[in-house]
Amino acid sequence: MGTAAVNPIDLMVQVINEHSPRSIWTGSPLEGYRRLGNTNRGQIGEEFIRKYLAGAGILVGNGSRVTPTDMLVAGKQLEIKTASLGTNGTFQFNHIRLDRTYDYLLCLGICPDRITFVAWRKGVIAEGGAGSLVRMAEGQSTTHKITKKLTDMEPIEELPSWVRKQVIGEQ
Question: Residue 85 — φ and ψ, nearest 5°?
Answer without folding.
Answer: -65, 130
